[in-house]
Amino acid sequence: MKIDSALQHITHIQAKGVKTKSSRGKTAASIDGSISDNVELTGTSSRIRELETQLADLPAEDAGKVESIRQAIIDGTFKVDEEAVAEGMVQETIEQLSHRHNR
Fold it and tell me: Cα–Cα distance between 7 and 4 in angstroms, integer?
């Protein structure tokens, strides 16, 4: 089998489930030898892109809070709430174990 004849045969095959524009009963693929796809974005997709852009512009941290903690450390007045740290560690461990169990 020659490669040229095989390629001509392939261009006439339409992908299952792909709709192409037709002209007088012939598919676009058989008219010009190529298949084209159309993509339509929904309103939700556009909104997600807008929100992603807005989130990218937000700072990752609260600069005021970071500065106040930095100053408290410098002044020697920063106090660690051991109970809050321990509770956070326990909760994180529970979440990790739960996540592993659900896999």
Answer: 5
Separation CA 74–CA 79 (nearest Å): 12
Tell me the sheet residues that pair with 23: 26
In degrees and rounded to multiples of 5, residue 23 shows phi and psi of -130, 110
Q: Same domain, yes or no, for 47 and 92?
A: yes
Nearest partner of 20 among 10, 30, 7, judged by Cα: 30
The tally of domains found in the chain comes to: 2
- Cα dist from 40 to 17, 27, 47, whole Å: 16, 20, 14
Q: Which domain holds residue 28?
A: 3-32
Same domain membership, residue 52 and residue 9: no
| pLDDT (tens place) for every residue of the chain, 103 residues total | 455 555 554 555 544 445 545 445 555 455 566 788 887 777 888 889 899 988 888 877 888 899 999 999 999 999 999 999 999 999 999 999 998 877 7
